[in-house]
Amino acid sequence: MSIIFHEKTKVFHLQNDSISYIMMVLPNGQMGHLYFGKRIHDREGFENLLETAPRPMSSCTFEGDKYFSLEHVKQELPSCGTGDYRSPAVEVKQENGSRISDFQYHSYRVESGKPKLPGLPATYTKDKGEAETLVLNLYDSVTGLWAELFYTIFAQGGILARSIRYCNKGSQPVQLERAMSLCLDLPDCDYDWVQLSGAWARERHVKERRLAMGVQSIGSMRGNSSHEHNPFLILKRPLASEQQGEAIGFSFVYSGNFLMQAEVDAHENARVLVGIHPDTFAWYLEPEESFQTPEALMVYTDSGLNDMSQTFHRLFQKRLARGYWRDRVRPILINNWEATYFNFTEDKLVQIAEKAKECGVELFVLDDGWFGARNNDFAGLGDWRANTERLPQGIAGLAERISQLGMKFGLWFEPEMVNKDSDLYRSHPDWILEVPKRANTHGRNQYVLDFSRKEVVDCIFEMMAEILRKAKVSYIKWDMNRSITECFSKSFGSERQGEIFHRYILGVYDLYERLTSEFPEVLFESCASGGGRFDPGILYYAPQGWASDNSDAVERMKIQYGTSMCYPISSIGSHVSVTPNHQVYRSTPLHTRANVAYFGTFGYELDLNKLTGEEIEEVKTQIAFMKEYRHLLQFGRFYRLKSPFEGNEMAWMAVSEDRKTAVVGWYRMLNVVNDRFTRVKLQGLDKDFCYEISQDGSRHYGDELMNLGLVTSDATAGQTPEDEIPCTDFESRLYILKAVEV
Ligand code: GLA
Q1: In a 3-state reduction of DSSP, which class is residue 359?
Q2: Which of 203, 224, 333, 337 to mutate to test the pocket of ligand 1 (most atoms within 8 A of CB)?
Q3: Is 155 a domain residue?
Q4: Does the active-site annotation cover 479?
Q5: pLDDT tens digit string along 371-415?
Q6: The domain spanning residue 391 has which CATH number?
C-alpha cells in the first residue's frame, strides 16, 4: 500500500495490491478525480486522464478558454453555481445568501493508520501498517471555510474509506446545507444499480435496475437508516455475477437519514454521492467550529459480488465491530417475545428458560413488557424499572434464577422512546421531539425522546446502568420502534433546527459508547422493529442485529440473502419460531426453520414446552450442530450460490479458513412433481482436496464440486418410495463437507 504524490503534475495516487485511486489538482485549483478501479502501475503524469473539450454551450472557467468547464470535469468536492450542473457534494449558505464556494487545494499530509472520527462510528486500524490516510486540505478563501478530505486505503482488499471535516476559520458564521461524505465521478455509466430495499418484515430484498440517464437514488428521511432502503449500493457491470466481474460497493457508516445517489449526465458520466440526506440537514458553523461527516466506504472488486461481500464481511467483523464479542461465536438464545408477547409472569419465563436449558440453549432473553406499567404498547416506555407485580424480585431476582439454571440472561430496552403514560413523560413532558403549537405524530403510541439533549441521554443512561450494575445481564436487545417526525428540539435556536436529526443520532451513539464502555462484556443486539436500523453505524457498537420481525423461514431466505450482500453472517440475528408462523401464517418444517437460522446468530423465539417429545429431540440435535459449526457459519467465508429472488431454489455455503470444512445450505420453496435433476456449483473449496459429504458419505474432489456441482436432485415427489419420508413444500438440506485423506 502506498500514497504517492507527483509534485510536478500535482497527481495523487493511492494504491495497494488490489486498487488504485488517482486524483489531481485541477487547473482551477480544485481537486479533480481521475480513476478508481483495479490497481495500475504508477507513473509520472496521469494528466491525460483530465479530458477537456470545447463543447458548445458549456459554462467555462477561464476567460478566453473554451476547454475547461466544470460541467464536464470529474471532481472530488464539487459545489454548485459555477458551471457544474450536477448535484454537488457541498453547499454552504453564507451571510449574504450566496451558496457558491470554491474549495482550492492548499496542502496535504499522510498519516499512518486511520484517524478516529470524533463521536462517530468508523472503521479502524489496530496496527499503523494496516492502512494509510491521505488528508487533503482545501480552502474557500471568501468564507474562510476549510475542508479536510480523508482517504484511507487499507493494505488489504479493495477498500477506500472517506469522510470530510469542515472547519470555519473565517470571521462570519456559515451554514452547511449539504455535506456529503463521498463523491465519485465515474467515466461511464455502463452499470447495473443494485440496492437492498423493502419494508417492515420484508427488509433488504435485492432490487436491481440498469443505471440510466438522470438521477436515481435511495435514502431515508425517517431518522433511522430504515426498513425501506439500506445505506448500501452496488454498481456492477451488467455481465458481472456472484463469481466474476467488476463491481463497486458503497456503504455508509451511519444510522440516520442518508442519501445514495447516482446521476448520469448527458455525456454518460456517472456521479455517485453518498452522505447525510441534505433535505433534512443543515449545520450552522460559527467561527472556529467544525463539522465531521460520517464515513463512507467504497469496495472495488473485479471478481464478482461474493468477493465484494466477503471484503465487507471481513472489514465489518474485524475493523468495524469492536470489543469482547467481536471475534466470539454468538450465544444460542431463546427470546420470549413470540412465545408470550406481553402476557407473562416470572414463573412462566423461568419455565421457558428451563426447557430451553434442557435443550442446550445458552442465553434467555426477556423482551418487551418487564418495566413500568408496560402491559400493552400504550404505557411504560421510559420507565426502565422492573414491574414488580410481574417480577417480584426485580430484574436482579429473575436474572439470578436464570443464572442458577446455568444460563446467561438478556434484556430488552427501547431507550430512545417514551409513552405519554409513563412517569418519565409526566416528569419531563418537554423531553420529546415536537414542534411548538403543532400536533405531534405518534408511532405505536410512542414518542421520540430528544436525544440531541445531553440531559436526556444522561437520564436514560443512568436508568439502564443501574439495572446493569445490579443484575447479571449479559445481553441487551436495543429496540427502536418508530420513525422520527416533528424533529424539533426545544433546547436549540432556530438556526440549529436543521441539526437535530444528526444530533439525535450523535446522542444514540453517545449512549451506546457509554454503555459499551462501562459494560464491555455485555453483548448488544440492535433492533428497530426488526431490521429498521441494520447499518454499519450501529454495528460499531452492537455486533449483531435482529434482521427482521419476520421469522418465517421462507421470508427469511430473501431477507438474509439480501443482508449478506454487505453484512457478515455473525451480525444477522435469526431465530427458529413456531408454525403457523406469526407473520405470514405459513407452516414450514422444523428442520428448514433451523437450516435458515443457522446462517446467522441462531436462537429460538417460541415456548419449547409446547413442542412434542420428537420435536424436542430435533431441537437438541439442532443446538448441538450449531455449537459445533457456529464458528464456521458465523466467521467462515460465506458464498451465495443460488438466489431466492430468481427461482424456486436457493443455496448458500460457508467455508472454513483452511477450506477443510464447509456447510452448504440448499432450500426449495415449493415442491415439484417429477422434477428435473439438479446440481449446485459450490465455491471457495480447495480444488485438490477430496471432500466427504455428510448426506451419503460420498467423496468428491473440490474441482468436481465447484465445476460439475453438488448433486441436489430430488425427483421423487409424487412417487416417493415407501421407506422414504416424502418431501414437502419448503424442503431444505444441509450438506457438511469435510476434507479427507485419500
Ligand atoms: C419490536 C421488535 C420485536 C419485539 C417487539 C417488542 O417489534 O422488533 O422483536 O422486541 O418490538 O415490542
Answers
A1: helix
A2: 337
A3: yes
A4: yes
A5: 999 999 999 999 999 999 999 999 999 999 999 999 999 999 999
A6: 3.20.20.70
